[in-house]
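Reminder to self: tokens first, then the designed residues, so the page reads top to bottom the way the pipeline ran.
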């Protein structure tokens, strides 16, 4: 009897075991199937234009990273519109003095590769910072070529800073802005190079914001530029030491903010823009003619009696002034 029970028990265990093993194999097959589906899943089904827009909102480094793991973003990376090419965004470390090392060469190679990848695809914004130019394993021809790739019809923002201590100053090629390439630019920031626009060149008609930092540009050259920038709303001039006479033309009907900081040779600022609202100035005493529309004035005085100047000159010079901020080594006044 015990043997029969044993016989009956063994097949029962076998059947249970076989059922269990089949269930395990079936469960394993289902798990693998689900896993395969997960691996094949690449995100929600969206129009390609939507993927491109989402991608364009990312910072450059993040955009490049997701392009490495996503086919959708990899396609949109080829036409990524906002390029910020600095040592930081390209993931290169090291101080300014390490320009002769592999860092400089890597930066040049990565910049070249990214810009060539975007040739002819419609860059909307380019930020390019080069420290200790031209000692950064690149030449002026390289820089001209890179700018030529990016500055095409449709670009809206151009930011170029060279941080150059070299005696031979880089001349920004004004010809890049001709043939329609400059008509779409809304924001232009140039730093530590020369900009020599000539008369009769109307190439920046969409420009709303202009920042010139430590630039080689004369008053006449700046006037040539401003005379074609009829949409300009804000003008910022910092360390532009070739400026002596600064005149803001009356055709700048939209100009509301003017900032002038430490232009050492400046003697006269004459504003004819009819709707200038705010003026911010720091530096030595200059002759000012600001117009009756000005309401906010910020002066950081250096080496002159700003208190006497404010009391004697400003009431008749800016009759509609509502806010006056005066900073000096001895006193700070907010009126």
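Designed residues (335 positions):
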């Amino acid at each position: 009897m015990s043997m029969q029970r044993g016989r009956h028990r063994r097949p029962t265990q076998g059947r249970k075991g076989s059922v269990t093993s089949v269930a395990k194999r079936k469960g394993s097959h289902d798990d693998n199937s689900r896993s395969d589906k997960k691996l094949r899943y690449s995100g929600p089904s969206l129009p390609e234009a939507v993927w491109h827009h989402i991608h364009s909102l990312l910072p450059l480094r993040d955009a490049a990273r997701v392009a490495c793991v996503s086919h959708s973003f990899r396609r949109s990376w080829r036409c990524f519109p906002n390029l910020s090419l600095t040592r930081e965004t390209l993931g290169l470390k090291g101080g300014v003095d390490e320009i002769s090392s592999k860092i400089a060469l890597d930066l040049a190679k990565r910049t070249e590769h990214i810009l060539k990848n975007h040739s002819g695809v419609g860059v909307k914004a380019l930020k390019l910072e080069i420290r200790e130019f031209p000692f950064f394993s690149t030449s002026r021809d390289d820089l001209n070529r890179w700018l030529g790739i990016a500055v095409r019809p449709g670009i809206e923002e151009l930011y170029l800073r060279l941080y150059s201590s070299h005696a031979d100053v880089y001349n920004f090629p004004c010809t890049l802005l001709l043939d329609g390439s400059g008509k779409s630019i809304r924001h232009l920031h140039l730093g530590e190079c020369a900009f020599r626009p000539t008369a009769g060149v109307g190439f920046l008609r969409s420009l709303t914001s202009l920042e010139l930092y430590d630039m080689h540009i004369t008053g006449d050259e700046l006037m040539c530029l401003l005379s074609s920038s009829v949409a300009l709303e804000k003008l910022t001039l910092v360390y532009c030491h070739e400026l002596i006479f600064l005149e803001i033309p009356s055709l700048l009907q939209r100009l509301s903010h003017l900032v002038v900081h430490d232009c050492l040779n400046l003697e006269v600022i004459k504003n004819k823009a009819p709707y200038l609202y705010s003026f911010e100035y720091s530096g030595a005493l200059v002759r000012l003619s600001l117009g009756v529309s000005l309401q906010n004035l910020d002066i950081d005085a250096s080496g002159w009696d700003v208190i006497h100047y404010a009391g004697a000159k400003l009431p008749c010079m800016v009759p509609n002034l509502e806010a006056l901020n005066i900073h000096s080594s001895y006193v700070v006044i907010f009126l």
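The CA atoms of residues 23 and 29 lie 10 Å apart.
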